[in-house]
Amino acid sequence: MKTTITHYTPFLPKILTGLLVIIFLTGCPPKPPPPTARDHYDQGMSAFNQGDYRYAANSFEKAVDMDRNFADAYFQLGRSYVRLKLHTKAIYAYKSCIEIRPSYAIAHSNLAALYVIKQQYTPAISHLKKAINYDPSDYYPYYLLANIYNKQGLCKKPKDLYNKALSIKPDLVDAKKELREVKRNNCHKKHRERVITPPPPKTEPFHGGGKALTPSQW
Question: If phi over 0 gives left and psi between -120 and 50 gives alpha, with beta otherwise, what is residue 210?
């Protein structure tokens, strides 16, 4: 009696054979899935950290186009616009971030700083108060708010706020300097009466020794 021997092809080689057939018929390998909003966000963060702010902004724009509720992407888009000196667009991005997540404290601070640049102190004060409410541990909103009140010629408010900022960040050199000036100048009645139109707060570069942040460092 003749015995028939059957040869079985292992399962894995069959799959590989099928893939090769597909590649042969289509002329190209299967396409990878399209990038997600998170993929664009990650690309934007990588570009931002490398100093390519235009590419970063483009990536964050794609992220928010795909996901209108992506608060972090709006926040980073605002930071990118600030680096590109597109302040009007940065304001829109920060406001969009806050609309999605009202408790985004640092977005309130950054938005306030832009309003200070535009000398729009009323909305700046409003957002700084919100930043303090949502994150009382951040020294910067206290410091910037103290600067505004200082330039308005007030006495008690900037003193209290400078002291609060210093209680959080004792090495904040500018706060110490401004506090001395407030006590020497603003707390003198005649000086307060001479103050009419306050100039914008100081925005010297911050190098870790107590200087105020510039827009490029928000």
Answer: left
Query: Rounded mean pLDDT of 93-115?
Result: 97
DSSP 12-80: HHHHHHHHHHHHHHHSSPPPPPPP-HHHHHHHHHHHHHTT-HHHHHHHHHHHHHH-TT-HHHHHHHHHH
Helix, strand, or coil (residue 84): coil
User: Per-residue pLDDT tens for 153-203?
Assistant: 999 999 999 999 999 999 999 999 999 999 999 987 654 444 434 444 444
pTM for the model stands at 0.73
Of 52, 58, 88, 51, give the one whose Cα is nearest residue 73: 58
- Please give the structure tokens belonging to residue 30: 């299967």
**Entry field: residues in the chain:** 218
Separation CA 212–CA 203 (nearest Å) = 5
CA angle 144–209–75, rounded 5-degree value:
50
What's the whole-number average pLDDT of the chain? 83
Closest of 198, 204, 215 to residue 177, by C-alpha: 204
For residue 19, the model assigns a pLDDT of 52
Residue 144 CB coordination number (10 Å): 24
